[in-house]
User: Fold this.
Amino acid sequence: MTDPRMERLERHLLRLRLVSTKSRLDSLLEEGARSELSFLDFLDKVVSDEVNSKDAKRAQMRAQMAKFPLDRTLESFDFSLQPSLDRRLITELETGRYLANATNVLLLGPPGVGKTHLAIGLGRKAIQQGYSCRFITALDLVHQLAVAEQHGALETALNHFGRHHLLILDELGYLPLARAGGHLLFHLIRRRYEKGSLIITSNQPVGSWGEVLGDPVVATAVLDRLLHHSHVLTIKGESYRLKEKRRAGVIPIREGDAK
Ligand code: ADP
Ligand code: MG
Assistant:
């Protein structure tokens, strides 16, 4: 027969939603008895394990909600291949301090140099620190805002994309936006201004954003807000994919290339 105290304990743990402790109750009790932990150490262990389990679950849920397109991390980024990159600044960004001040990050550079990879890596760090994050391409975002506007739901869509602590806007500038698209983007950037951080990746220098946003006046207004509190990282250098191909001998190695 089950000990009535165990039954009560399980019921109470469930009511308090301490699901990890409930599912591991037997092994926890065994471990506590075996290692002769003090009451304080035992309670500390049980509560810490539950908190860690809840944190891990939340982080996993936030990562799913962020909709990262690739499984990339800062740890898997080879900084030695990108000597032009300010490593100290990336280390600073890893701390997440910029998120507390709603500072923006612009990652600029030609295709293939790792802008999306770095943005996802920073997004994952933000999530680990308890922030919410959403990744979307600039074109997708503008499309979603335009559809919402057609349905009279622009306000709801702006609120949705405005509420995440960190919004990653990928690939701004690969295709120029129509004027109306630039205006929608401006609405969102104004909504987030000094409230939440943006990471924007672009293959275009900010000087070309007039064409990118389809309207030079809107581009000035966008840049004014974006750059007010921002870190700009310009990555020079060659595409990672091309470098890999050179190494594999598919295309010839250039002078000065890292071997
Ligand atoms: P961009 O967004 O600048 O066009 P990506 O971030 O998509 O470039 O990088 C292209 C591919 O190369 C991705 O698979 C990415 O993970 C990889 N990559 C780029 N730079 C690096 C690097 N320095 N270390 C490891 N992988 C890299
Ligand atoms: Mg990219």
Observations:
- Strands lie at 104-108, 133-137, 166-172, 197-202, 230-234.
- Residues 39-66 form the longest helix (28 residues).
- The chain is about 55% helix and 10% strand.
